[in-house]
Amino acid sequence: MATMDIFADDAFSTISLTTAINQIEYKPQFLRSLGLFTPRPVRTEKVAIEMRDQTLSLIQTSPRGAPLEEQAGSKRTVRDFRTVRLAKGDTVMADEIQGIRAFGTESELQQVVTEVAERQMRLIDDIDLTHEHMLLGAVQGVLTDADGSTLYDWFDEFGVSQAAEIDFDLDNASPASGAVRKKCNQVIRQMQVAAAGAWVPGRTSVLALCGDAFWDDLTAHSEVRETYLNTMQAADLREINQPYESFRYGGITWVNYRGTDDGSTIAIGTDKAKFVPVGARNAFEVAYAPMEAFEYVNTPGRDFYSMIIPDRDRNMSVRIEAYSYPLPICTRPAMLQRAKRT
After folding, report:
1. Do 276 and 252 form a contact (C-beta atoms < 8 A)?
2. Of 85, 87, 106, 112, residue with least CA distance to 2
3. Do 50 and 329 touch, CB atoms closer than 8 A?
4. What is the DSSP letter of 171?
5. What's the CA gap between 223 and 152, in Å, rounded?
6. Which of 70, 145, 259, 326 is spaced 20 to 30 Å from 7 by Cα?
């Protein structure tokens, strides 16, 4: 029968558990899979962001030999932001492993490792879901906690105003010719103007995360359908009106974003669309701070950490704990655009 002494094995050290987490294939999530956020491991709980005011100006003509107009120095501001802490635990009681016995080719250690790994994975699933929630907040410019409270409003932090919502007027029974494409052009223009050098021609593109009602009306819109009917992509009409798919129109890649099944924990408002720059220079970063444990002091942060804590006083249980110290950052919130269905 397995005993609590088994948890003294190196397989349950903080480093081994954390390494095991990094080898697990996490359940895919859309924003994480995009590679939109540049990972930035840091060695402290704070991350510094430098803001530089770079503007272009016209040069007044001057006579030959006259003194040159001097370039104005750029203004720099450095701000510190603190990473956040995500932590959750589970307790394995002694009587939960008392029936584990070695049989076949499996040892007691192997079976307990499997039990711990399963519980560890459930903890990581919750942290991974929280990461997606935070990334979705960052691409909208406002990072929120699980209870809906604001952690960071990147518009306020960087002193920019959020762009007004664009009305796509998708429920118009008699839309003007090219109305949707004009709205697409408006989104792209506003994003490029607000980019301040972050838009890279040929590399940066626009991604639209659509709520369900916005997606349904967009894909059913006569202008969108007629555009596809007149091209070799007519067969794609069978796909673009499917839920949770994607298609390209008006220079924008449209995605029916799928969040949590309750439609609220992680979601885009059903009548809304959020426009995100993809491939923009340093527009999105996610800092990872190190775990608050001696093994990781002054080391670059990782996505996840895990540790196990034996009950040394009573020897009746062990704690499995998982941690993450992220900070998703939108450094160019002025680029973010938004729309409503009607």
Report:
1. no
2. 112
3. no
4. T
5. 39
6. 326
For the chain, the domains span: 4-51+78-147+285-330, 161-281+332-340
At residue 86, φ and ψ (nearest 5 deg) are -110, 125
74/188 Cα distance (integer angstroms): 27
Closest CA to 134 of 86, 191, 65: 86
> Averaged in consecutive runs of 10 residues, what is the pLDDT profile of the chain (342 residues)?
57 64 58 92 89 60 78 72 95 76 54 80 90 96 95 94 97 93 98 93 97 95 83 57 86 94 91 98 94 92 90 85 95 96 96
Helix (H, G, I), strand (E, B) or coil at 151: strand
State both tokens at 149: 């409270």
User: Helix 108-138 vs helix 14-23: angle between axes, to the nearest 10 degrees?
Assistant: 60
CATH for 4-51+78-147+285-330 is 3.15.30.10
Q: Report whether 199 contacts 277 (CB < 8 A).
A: yes
- Give the count of alpha carbons within 13 A of 15, CB side only: 7
Is 250 within 8 Å of 208 (Cβ atoms)?
no
Q: From start to end of 178-316, where are the E strands? A: 205-210, 246-249, 252-256, 272-278, 284-288, 305-310
